Amino acid sequence: MIKISKLADYAIHIVHALMSETTCASAAKIAKKTLIPEPTVSKILKKLAESDLLVSSQGPKGGYQLAKNAEKISLAELITAIDGKPAMTECCKTAYDCARDAICGQQSNWQKINKKILAVLEAMPVSEMKNKPSL
After folding, report:
1. pLDDT reading at 1 higher than 70
2. Cross-strand partners of 66
3. Does residue 135 belong to any structural domain of this protein?
């Protein structure tokens, strides 16, 4: 099964919560808004700030805000900030050296599939995850 981590899923909710904020929001405020435990929110906020997706500021009115418009943050960026670059299999990871490479032949096929999935994630802004898709 292909799935993103719970932390990456929570990161989407956190970005959605920050979309409606006009000023910095504290981890406590975001935790209350998203119903995600505050220590988990803090961990995710730190990773998103380290990846330059959020701006953090200190002080009594400090907190976090989006570094850019949510329409310009792709799901791929968000997932990469939390989990690292998405890879379908171990052999899709950069510089993966497989002992079975000479007899397997799957690596290039998995890499093609991974590239297509990555393209979809890169094309999808995190802001669209809030909308219900039309069928």
Report:
1. no
2. 54
3. no
